[in-house]
Design a protein that fits this description.
It comes from Clavelina lepadiformis. The chain has about 675 residues and is an alpha/beta fold. The chain has five domains: about 15-280, 3-Layer(aba) Sandwich (Rossmann fold), CATH 3.40.50; about 285-350; about 360-435; about 445-540; about 580-679. Strand 10 (about 555), helix 23 (about 565-570) and strand 11 form a beta-alpha-beta unit. Helix 19 packs parallel to helix 21. The N and C termini lie far apart (about 70 Å).
Length: about 675
């Protein structure tokens, strides 16, 4: 892979995390420790080795910071924008309910009712002697954030070692020293490693270890590992487990970044003591950042043709993709109203863009990468070897930057730890998932596809892929395709409808009291995931069929993921029968998600819903009109306990409202203004 120019390219996520004077100054850190007034010869050797190690750490951080995405350059000074940082309680030790299940699509909302407080960057720098985790959804800038933290800690004169799980999937056993020093900084003397490690053992309170991307580890930490000696040669997962459990460097600060699900599964002895969640940018900040790299004409064009694409810009990765793909597009932006359509548009435009060069056909490269991505996803792999690439028909010496990124890992002292000195990975896991879908749709033989759908596609492992497959195939149906693609469309449609019928029937059996809560919750999640698949493809015939099996009593999942809302709304638009109960209780819906659901309900027939419960959500005064619009549709009872901030509850009975004890907030004023009967 050719060296990328740092003068003409800018990584947009850098701007997202450029948050404080500490971060800015960290770019020019000079290590200038004051040497202790009195040291022995051995202490002096350790001190000198440690200072050298500090400089090596800074050098690594500077090198990592120079990696850039091609095709995007800033027009002016990058604005400082701030992703929200919240301390949350969901992952604290001993606090995770045993029946909680992780679904890949649920990571944004998994913890949103567990927020303790909003914090600033300095709060993280003030932490000492703990194990903390930083969780965020895909593309939110976790890696860049962790690098910025490392630079800031170095400025504060703390030894900060930054490691990526992606590069630490060692297959052979190794010692703790090899893991932290020998393989991270290869090529130095035994005396150097020994002196540095000795200093670290004596000065654990001055150490910060940052391990980035737990979700990209190819080993599981679910099983409890016994305490081990720091000189023992063991699998890397045992070293990680004992670091998390504070068996090593007890007084050091350990920081792990991850998608939320990987932290959720850590056993109690290895759970973080403090967890921070990174949020998306506000729409205003995403526009400010967008305009630093693109013209306002492009912003207006996207807003006119595909407004949902702008909301996707709140995620730094999506913002990069959208700007890069439309800097020199080969075709119009098109309808990118679903994630599937966004990725299809972006990948197509990137393929034709003059900003991205490849010595051979990019179409040929993409076809090879699709096969490679599918087999890697099937095996749960995120790290690939040169052999993997060659076996997949990809030349590892000329690989294209935007799709696969190259990491040159210098050969370790112990050559058994890595085969060769080069590892490859897709530049983001979402690219791998999208390319996997492309293989399933375009490259997989029909018979193999049918077997894959029946045996694998509807398992949890394929949740994201499943939605993209439905979106891509059902979109293709509108283009009047034939042959293998038509067979795949018809088979997937038949199987999806079959799954909807089966899950709906089981759901109704449980609604009649024939199962336990955990099973009911799992089925609810499964049913709404199927609705998401229907919504992703926007196929009205499937949505209409889905309504035939729609239960007359519907309870949305607790902590309803906003990604599930569009699919549910798409199905709800096609409902013609009476619904006895529609419960949105305790879904923690925000103002936007509730507005989306209420907008569909307001178009339903008068009295079509018997009882509706919207209690315990996060509604705002802007949702008052949405609530009022429900009155025409709800026939018997509208329950509204604690659905507005500061409100202790209202419910509607026989056309009037009754106030709950201690109720206060916005509802009283607004109901009086609209002349509703309050009693």
């Amino acid at each position: 892979m050719a060296e990328q120019s740092t003068s003409s390219t800018v990584n947009i996520t850098d701007a997202v995390l450029n948050q404080s004077p500490v971060i800015k100054d960290a770019e020019i850190v000079n290590i200038n420790y004051t040497q202790p007034p009195s040291t022995s010869s051995s202490d002096e050797d350790e001190w000198n080795s440690m200072r050298k190690l500090m400089k090596l750490c800074i050098s690594y951080l500077e090198k990592e910071g120079k990696l850039r995405l091609q095709g995007v350059s800033a027009k002016e000074q990058i604005p400082v924008v701030h992703p929200a940082i919240h301390e949350i309680t969901y992952y604290d030790r001993d606090t995770v309910p045993v029946d909680e299940r992780y679904e890949p699509e649920g990571q944004n909302e998994l913890f949103k009712n567990k927020i303790k407080r909003e914090v600033c960057f300095q709060d993280l720098l003030d932490q000492k002697g703990k194990f903390i985790s930083i969780v965020a959804s895909a593309g939110s800038g976790k890696t860049v954030f962790s690098l910025r933290l490392a630079k800031a800690f170095s400025l504060l004169k703390r030894l900060c070692i930054h490691l990526k799980f992606m590069y630490a999937n060692y297959e052979e056993p190794l010692t703790l020293r090899q893991f932290l020093l020998d393989n991270k900084f290869p090529g130095y003397s035994e005396e150097f490693y020994t002196a540095c490690f000795s200093w670290m053992q004596k000065n654990a309170d001055k150490i910060v270890l940052i391990l980035d991307g737990l979700d990209q580890a190819q080993y599981s930490l679910k099983k409890i590992s016994q305490n081990i000696n720091d000189k023992a040669c063991v699998p890397v997962k045992d070293l990680i487990f004992n670091l998390c459990g504070k068996h090593f460097f007890r007084n050091s600060l350990l920081i792990i970044t991850s998608r939320p699900h990987a932290v959720l599964y850590l056993p109690e002895p290895a759970r973080p003591q403090v967890t921070y969640a990174l949020g998306d940018l506000s729409l205003e900040e995403s526009k400010e950042l967008f305009l630093a790299f693109a013209d306002e004409d492009l912003w207006r064009k996207i807003k006119k043709s595909s407004g949902q694409m702008l909301s996707m810009c709140r995620n730094p990765l999506m913002l990069q993709m959208i700007i890069s793909s439309n800097t020199d597009p080969s075709e119009d932006i098109g309808d990118a109203s679903t994630p599937t359509r966004l990725f299809a548009t972006v990948m197509n435009n990137l393929t034709y863009s003059r900003n991205f060069q490849y010595p051979e056909s990019l179409h040929k490269l993409t076809r090879s990468l699709q096969t490679l991505a599918f087999h890697a996803t099937k095996e749960g792999k995120v790290v690939l070897t040169a052999k993997d690439l060659r076996d997949g028909g990809v030349d590892p010496t000329t690989i294209h930057d935007i799709v696969v990124q190259l990491h040159c890992h210098r050969s370790p002292i112990n050559s058994r730890l890595l085969e060769g000195n080069t590892k490859f990975f897709f530049c983001h896991q979402t690219f791998q998932e999208h390319l996997t879908v492309s293989y399933v749709v375009y490259g997989m033989p029909v018979e193999e596809f049918q077997d894959f759908v029946e045996t694998s596609l509807f398992e949890d492992h394929w949740t994201v892929v499943r939605r993209f497959v439905c979106g891509l195939l059902f979109d293709l149906e509108s283009k009047a395709v034939s042959g293998d693609l038509l067979q795949k469309i018809e088979f997937l449609k038949k199987y999806l409808i079959q799954e909807l019928e089966i899950i709906s029937e089981k759901y109704m059996e449980m609604e009649r009291g024939q199962s336990v809560w955990q099973d009911y919750k799992a089925l609810t999640d499964k049913l709404f995931d199927l609705y998401a698949c229907v919504g992703e493809g926007k196929d009205s015939s499937i949505a209409t069929k889905a309504t035939e099996y729609l239960p007359t009593t519907i309870r949305l999942p607790i902590l309803m993921n906003s990604n599930l809302v569009p699919g549910f709304c798409f199905v709800l638009k096609h409902v013609t029968k009476q619904l006895d109960v529609l419960s949105l209780m305790n879904c923690q819906l925000d103002a936007n998600s509730f507005h989306e659901i209420a907008s569909v309900i307001k178009e339903m027939k008068p009295g079509q819903i018997g009882m509706m419960d919207i209690s315990y959500n996060d509604l705002q005064p802007s949702n008052i009109d949405d609530v009022i619009g429900l009155f025409r549709v709800v026939r018997d009872e509208l329950v509204m306990w604690d659905c507005f901030i500061g409100d202790a509850g209202w419910w509607m009975v026989d056309g009037g409202f009754q106030r709950g004890a201690g109720c206060e907030g916005e509802m009283l004023y607004w109901m009086k203004e609209t002349n509703f009967d309050l009693h």
